[in-house]
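During the reporting period, we have paired protein sequences with backbone structure tokens. One record among many follows, to show the layout:
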Amino acid sequence: MLQLDQLVPPVADIARAAGEVILEIYQAAAPDPEGGLLAYKADDSPLTRADVAAHALIAARLSALDTVWPVVSEEDVASLAHRRSPGTFWLVDPLDGTKEFLARNGEFTVNIALVSDGVAVLGVVYAPVLDQLYWGGRGVAACRADNGRVLPIRVAEPVPDGATWRVVASKSHLNAETSAFIAKLGTHALVQAGSSLKLCRVAEGTADVYPRLAPTCEWDTAAAQAVLEAAGGVVCDVGGAALRYGKTELLNPHFIAASSLAGLPIPA
């Protein structure tokens, strides 16, 4: 059985290969205002040809690795039977940020996580348009690869009293609860990012906190949570408890991703 650090190269290759498939469809769909849209799912989220193609590639290649863990994917309803804790499984969002894909802003990602007994122990996040690859996990250093360079990443130091908080917040998800949380921080500057890149911005130290006080699913966060925690950060619910996976409920609780809990308006 491969160790976690030994899994990084093959899983990174799988994420890149899925990204290439997505890019082919993304580029071919440029003249099409619907960008390869196939349908809308029961929750009104869009499904594109890129979602389906990336899922097929990732599921096949993860299953071919020297592991015994099942693959749970957003695009395979039957696979949800394997999403349980205790237990170990791959948790995949083949195309995180399908709305960003359709909006053609380039800020969508491939998310591949390994979950063991409720904890995201390894995560790989790849942004195909930006050609940015992030990875990290338990005992696996957090890194970013882009432009042919591999760099270790680390969260920023806690924000000093009275200093400006760099807050990742999506304008489309800036609801009243999120706005109230940000207001409690005091002086702040908004950092824009899409999909799992929000958590990765905190992991690399270019943002301090990402409050997500709106619905997300487990596959939206697991990979980037592993990266952020490996970089020294924290992902917790509004009561301060770490996000966990394989729950009875597929939806995550509202959560805060941050470099540190220090100074945040939540219980320490």
